[in-house]
Write a structure and sequence with these properties.
The chain is of the alpha+beta class. It contains 9 helices and 12 strands. It has 2 domains: 148 residues, Aminopeptidase, CATH 3.40.630; 155 residues, Aminopeptidase (3-Layer(aba) Sandwich), CATH 3.40.630. Strand 3 and strand 4 form a beta hairpin.
Length: 333
């Protein structure tokens, strides 16, 4: 993997690991790839890429594919989520299609993933997954040819507010606050983590996470505790909306309600509260990601709140080792 070329690369193209100084060109690649695929792009930031690279070893888990002239033709990375779930992520520059770059990136990610199989718990099923534009037939054909199967669809939901959203109606006894700061911050972060893990335990594909890995998000330079909204009743966390400000867009990263508080309107209240806070800050667009077949009805909630599907993604998967599936597959798993 440290070689500068691999046989399936086009003649003259080279391969190397990314470095800190490569972040600007990688950022441009991500944006231009999204623009070509969707007619819009996620508001990728330098901090997004830098944070990704703190969760992997770029020297082993990420690659740049360069043209003979040294321009960036493709970028790929692999992420070991633990519990047998490994994800590959790859982007081909729009000018570099149909040259085998996508095939090369699948090869790189899958080869590295096979080296990581032994890190999964004994007896656990291990798989590698990729996401792609759900409307891209060429991507579907490529993954099918490489032995991957489509297993799930995901949406990027969006709302563009032309006026202030309606005020939230909180369930009786529920109040909302932001994340504690100062000496109380760590304990509050731990309580939020526990609530999120419980809320997402019945979401498809969920695997238990460690607090230490999860809390890394608060170490980002763009982390703002005032954008973590926590709903409580009698001192217990009932639900959360964890957000961050992107350049021109509010991003709702995590919306979760614990089971005892479901079907009481708390999810809608948190969502409207989030919209209202971003609107108050002068931000008119809010986006989030959702499983299109979400087990708890999240998609319908977002649509009722006025959001629409802006991007469609399909998740493709290949099994690397048979075994017991540790990720949630159905309610009650």
């Amino acid at each position: 993997m440290n070689a500068t070329t691999i046989e399936i690369l086009p003649t003259g193209y080279t391969l190397r690991a990314p470095r800190e100084e490569d972040i600007p060109v990688v950022l441009t690649l991500l944006r231009e790839t999204d623009d070509a695929e969707f007619g819009q792009h996620d508001e990728w930031t330098v901090e997004d890429i830098r944070h990704d690279w703190t969760t992997i070893d770029p020297a082993q888990d990420a690659w740049l594919i360069l043209t003979p002239e040294g321009a960036l033709a493709g970028y790929a990375a692999v992420f070991n989520q633990g519990h047998g779930k490994i994800f590959g992520d790859g982007y081909v520059h729009p000018t570099q299609h149909e040259r085998g770059i996508g095939t090369a990136m699948i090869y790189l990610c899958e080869t590295r993933a096979r080296e990581l199989v032994s890190t999964a718990p004994e007896g656990a099923r291990v798989s590698i997954g990729f996401g792609a534009n759900g409307l891209n037939e060429q991507a579907s054909e490529l993954f099918t040819y490489e032995g991957y199967a489509p297993i799930r669809n995901f949406y990027r939901m969006r709302i563009d507010m032309t006026e202030a959203p309606e005020a939230p109606v909180w369930p009786e006894g529920v109040t909302v606050r932001t994340l504690a700061t100062g000496d109380a911050a760590l304990a509050d972060q731990r309580a939020v983590f526990d609530a999120v893990e419980e809320a997402f335990a019945d979401h498809w594909g969920h695997v238990p996470r460690s607090f230490e890995n999860w809390i890394e998000r608060t170490h980002r330079e763009d982390f703002d505790p005032r954008l973590w909204y926590i709903a409580e009743e009698d001192g217990q966390i009932a639900g959360v909306s964890l957000c961050r400000q992107m350049t021109d867009t509010g991003f709702l990263n995590t919306l979760g309600v614990r089971r005892p508080w479901r079907k009481r309107g708390l999810g809608m209240a948190l969502l409207l509260h989030t919209f209202g806070e971003f609107y108050r800050r002068g931000q008119r667009t809010v986006v989030l990601g959702v499983d299109a077949q979400n087990l708890t009805g999240a998609l319908q909630l977002y649509e009722r709140a006025g959001m629409h599907v802006a991007m469609r993604f399909t998740s493709y998967e290949k099994e690397l080792r048979a075994g017991a599936e540790l990720a949630t597959q159905a309610l009650g798993d």
